[in-house]
Amino acid sequence: MLSGVRKQVHDVIDFHCHPPGWRRTRTAYWRAPSPRDYLRYLRRAGLRGAALLAHDGLHRATPDSNDDLAAFAAEHPDRFFGFGTVYAPHPHAAAEARRCLTDLGLRGIKLHPWLQGVPMHHAGLDAVLAVVAELRGIVLVHDGTPPYATAGQIAAAARRHPTLPVVLGHGGLHDTWREALALTATTPNLYLCLCGTPPYAARTIVRQAPPEKVLFGTDAGLAPGPAQEYAVARVREISDWGVADADRVRILSANPARLLGIDPLPPITAEEAGDHDH
Q1: Which of 206, 124, 79, 91 is nearest to 111 (CA)?
Q2: Is 160 helix (H, G, I), strand (E, B) or coil?
Q3: How far apart are CA 230 and CA 109, in angstroms?
Q4: pTM
Q5: pLDDT digits (tens, 9 = 90+) for 166-190
Q6: What is the C-alpha to C-alpha distance for residues 88 and 116, in angstroms, rounded to an integer?
Q7: Which domain holds residue 133?
Q8: What SS3 state is found at 14?
Q9: Is 181 domain-assigned?
C-alpha cells in the first residue's frame, strides 16, 4: 500500500494512536478491537509500531484505566508502546505516574489539559512531570484547543523540565499551529506530532521545523475499529511535499524510534498478525 514510500522509509511508527475505550464506549453493537486487530491494522497500513495513548483515562483517570492500557500493549510489546495518564490534582498522581513507568512498563504519560480540565501550570502537574523526567519517560500533551491546551502553555511546562521530552500531540491543529511551529524550533525538549494538523499547516511545518523535532501520528482508534486510512494518506502527503528523503525518514521512523529508545522495527509478518487476508 505504501510501496512508493518504503524505498526511503524502513520503520514507520504512528506516534498517536488510542486503544479502544473499554469502559466508556463499549456497546452491544460495537466489538472493541483486540490487540491482534490493531496489529493487523498496522500491517495493512504499512506501519510497524504505534504509541498507544490513554483513552478511558482521559475521561476518568484511574489506576484501572492504566492497567487496561498496559495489558493491551503487553500483548505485542515490541509493537505497542503504551502511555498512561493521571489526573494531576489528585494527591497520588505522581505516584501513579511512577507506577505507570515502572510496574506497568509504560513509556510515558498522555495529558489532555482541555478534557481533563487541568492547566499546564497546575502545581500537581510539575510533580508528575518531574517523575516522568526522572524515569526517562515521555509526556505527550493534547494541544491546539484553547484556552487550556495551547503550545505556549505546554512549552512553558517543558522549559521547567528541560530533560523531559514533551510532545505537542496535534501540531497546533487549526488554531495554534504557527505557535506550535515557532515554539518547537526554540524549545530544545519540545517535539511536534503531525496528528490532525491540517494539510496546509503540516506542509509548512515539515518544511520549516527542525526535522529532528517532528513526528507522525494519526489518532487512529477513535472510531468503531482500529483502522484509520488517514495514516496512508498522511504518509503519501509527506512524500508529495518535496521533503528531503533524510527528513522524511526522520519524521516517520528515526525520531519516534529515538524518543522511544528502540531499534528499527522489522515488518509485521502475516503470521505475527494472524492476518490471512494478504
Answers
A1: 124
A2: helix
A3: 24
A4: 0.92
A5: 999 999 999 999 999 999 999 999 9
A6: 9
A7: 10-263
A8: strand
A9: yes
